[in-house]
Amino acid sequence: MATAYKTTTILLDGKRVKLQLWDTSGQGRFCTIIRSYSRGAQGIFLVYDITNKWSFDGIDRWLKEVEEHAPGVPKVLVGNRLHLAFKRQVGERDAETYAAKNHMAFFEVSPLCDFNIRESFSELSRMALHRNGMERLWRSNKVLSLQELACRAIVARTTVYGIDQLPLPKSIKSHLKSYAMTTTSQLRYNGNRSLSSSKSLSSHHRKLRFVGVGHNGLATLASSPGSITDTRTSCVGRNSCTIS
Predict the structure, then answer these.
(1) CA distance linking residue 146 with residue 150, whole number of Å
(2) Nearest alpha-carbon partner for 30 in 59, 1, 4, 60
(3) Which residues, in sequence order, are bridge partners of residue 205?
(4) Which of 47, 66, 161, 202 is deepest in the core (most CB within 10 A)?
(5) Helix and strand tally (H, E) in the chain?
(6) DSSP per-residue letters across 207-218
(7) What sign does the CA torsion over 89, 93, 56, 17 have?
């Protein structure tokens, strides 16, 4: 099947966001379909299988398609099937470096364990809202948190690559890099963009369209055992999920 469609709702910063998910096949003969769906997307997942080096090598091709037909759209690189890490063929560090080089956020996930599923969808949602100028509306009544201020201060004084050299926990460095890439994307593609009216904003800021391409598609992420809206995580660590 060339595409699979699913809708889901996530809770993002206390507000509900409806996601329209289009999972496109990673097979070459469906390139035309992928191009068509990419044009209307507000966010794109590039998904590969960590146990299949070939699927990771193919990301280059899909990234070029996306950049040609949907330039500037926020992207997240997703390494799927983390529960099979003992069969890993793609190193986490290699994928992380590739994502940073191509201005993408990066997650390794396990639909079986419901690990990093909600986090990856939430991150792409924030990036999409940020790029479309909806950040101020989304957080209009909020004072900047200490975390937000700290991110701004650090990102203003270093590069995405320099963040790796900071003496910080890996989870914090990952968040900082994602924050830096989102900010850069907004400045590059949306610096002079304005929205016509608050009514127009209201009609769009609650609905986002995401497209997934790659060997292991978006449908497997969206159909994880736990709901994406669920704040609980059934797999709290990489070694706590076992397969019988």
Answers:
(1) 6
(2) 1
(3) none
(4) 47
(5) 11, 6
(6) EEEEEEEESS-H
(7) positive
